[in-house]
Design goal:
The complex is a heterodimer of chains A (253) and B (230). With 253 residues, chain A is mostly helical. Chain A has eleven helices and no strands. Chain A is globular, with a radius of gyration of 22 Å. The C terminus of chain A is likely disordered. Chain B has a single domain, classed as MetI-like fold, CATH 1.10.3720.10. The chains are: A mainly alpha (253), B mainly alpha (230).
């Protein structure tokens, strides 16, 4: 293999004029984190609502939720990004379309919206599983105490469901971080895109990709650690959540 | 809104879209599914092996690739393939690796991680008594795997393996970032050439949606049929 390693490249000035190559990667990391976090919050809320809808006893709501899930799950994320970026501004009324195209950081918002819709279907499926896994008696007990449907969901079913599905949600959180790299296709200069740019300017392919791979792994580890803390913090004494399935999701020891 | 929707744009590009783009995507998906399942099964057996270095290597490989974005992995293999190729055949300079081969190798190596975890769950779902019974009958490890464990593991995990294949089918679209001629890349080239982005991307979305929906319907039917009532 004749490849010229040059780890000093990171301290050299990058051609975009912002500073060193290392700083360029840092800027990319910041975009990656911003996109992932914003989209994750939105996906949690949307997924929670849709997942709850699919468990309601009303046929109409359940079908609406199922349709949402099927729609946003069966189109590749990249294509969804293109749809939000190129297609939606053209088919909405012109005033809104122009506003969408002229919004500053439009590629950031496109990435957030696409990632949120795509991930929310997976969150919704988890929520549905978490709700359905609870004993029917929970709902009955809530109703017997005089709670209406909204109250039963808000005070009894959903808080427990959220705790049950925290481990699979951890892996969805990691997925949204990884999927945020697709945003480079709509021009967002997130970590992968910055790495690619660095490789094109400096020709130091493997140094650039090694460092950004390590950055992704470190962020992943922070997520796993943080979510585990959250799980322990939220745990209700007496309701132990199956640790075996959690270990399984993380890929075991 | 859809006033100037030009359906002819799709008709004109039909041949390239379906017989080059979609054909490439389906071919890579199908071959990567086969290759990934085989490699994934081997990794699963390694992870469950009592030989520590084997288990460690498979575990490290699977966990590493699963914590890195696929886009990143595609770039890695794209840039590394010429060097690895040169190293294998002992050439002085990096060698050219074709688009199809490089995509296929990337997806086999990447999806093997996910298939590995599925097969591991499948193998572990077989009661330990079956393995003991096999050994008691004098089977070797390979006979036991081939005749007793793996056929049942495959059967139990078939719906999950196919669901992962739907994910793989969608993931193949990401080769767009290295401009390999898959369905999305060809559609976007036509879209930019004819300035027909709306028509092209909507068409791509509809095709993906229809195919994935059909496949997930098959998976659901299969799951209902395969469930063994114990």
């Amino acid at each position: 293999m004749n490849y010229n390693w040059n780890w000093g490249i990171f301290l050299e000035a990058s051609p975009d004029g912002t500073g060193s190559y290392l700083y360029t990667l840092f800027l990319g990391t910041r975009w990656t984190i911003a996109v992932s976090l914003t989209a994750w919050v939105a996906a949690l809320v949307m997924g929670g609502v849709v997942g709850t809808l699919t468990t309601l006893p009303r046929r109409g709501w359940a079908m609406l939720g199922d349709a949402y899930i099927e729609f946003f799950r069966n189109i590749p994320l990249l294509v969804q990004m293109f749809l939000w970026f190129f297609v939606v501004p053209e088919i909405v009324p012109e005033v809104i379309g122009t506003w969408m195209k002229q919004t500053p950081n439009s590629s950031f918002w496109t990435a957030v919206v696409a990632l949120a819709f795509f991930t929310s279907t997976r969150v919704a499926v988890q929520f549905r599983a978490g709700i359905l896994s609870q004993a029917r008696g929970q709902m009955m007990a809530a109703q017997a105490l005089g709670m209406n449907m909204t109250q039963s969901y808000c005070y009894v079913i959903l808080p427990m469901a959220f705790r049950i599905i925290l481990p699979p949600l951890t892996s969805e959180f990691m997925n949204i971080l990884k999927n945020s790299s697709v945003a480079m296709a709509v021009g967002l200069m997130e970590l992968t895109a910055q790495t690619r740019a660095m490789q094109e300017f400096s020709f130091q392919v493997f140094e650039a990709f090694t460092v950004s791979t390590i950055i992704y792994i470190v962020i992943n580890m922070v997520i796993v650690f943080g979510m585990r803390r959250l799980e322990r913090w939220l745990a209700v004494p007496g309701f132990s959540i199956d640790r075996a399935s959690e270990a399984d999701l993380r890929g075991g020891a | 809104m859809f006033g100037n929707f030009d359906f002819q744009a799709i008709v004109r590009g039909w041949h390239a879209l379906i017989f080059e783009g979609l054909a490439f995507t389906l071919e890579v998906t199908f071959l990567a599914m086969i290759g990934g399942t085989i490699l994934g099964t081997v990794f699963a057996m390694m992870r469950l092996s009592s030989t520590k270095p084997l288990a460690w290597f498979a575990g490290a490989y699977v966990n590493l690739l699963r914590s890195v974005p696929l886009v990143m992995v595609i770039f890695w293999f794209y840039f590394m393939a010429p060097y690895i190729g040169a190293w294998i055949i002992g050439a002085e300079r990096p060698v050219q690796v074709g688009a199809f081969a490089s995509a296929l190798i990337t997806f086999i190596l990447f999806e093997a991680c996910y298939y590995c975890e599925i097969m591991r769950a499948g193998i572990q779902s077989i009661p330990a008594g079956q393995a003991n019974a096999g050994y008691a009958l004098g089977f070797s490890y390979w006979q036991l795997m081939r005749l007793v464990i793996l056929p049942q593991a495959f059967r139990n995990m078939l719906p999950v393996l196919l669901t992962q294949t739907i994910v793989l089918f969608q993931d193949v679209s990401l080769v767009y970032i290295i401009s390999l001629p898959d369905f999305v890349t060809i559609a976007s080239k036509i879209a930019q050439r004819d300035n027909r982005l709306v028509e092209m991307y909507l068409f791509v979305a509809v095709v993906y949606f229809a195919l994935c929906l059909a496949l997930s319907y098959v998976v659901r039917r299969l799951r209902a049929r395969l469930t063994i009532i114990r």
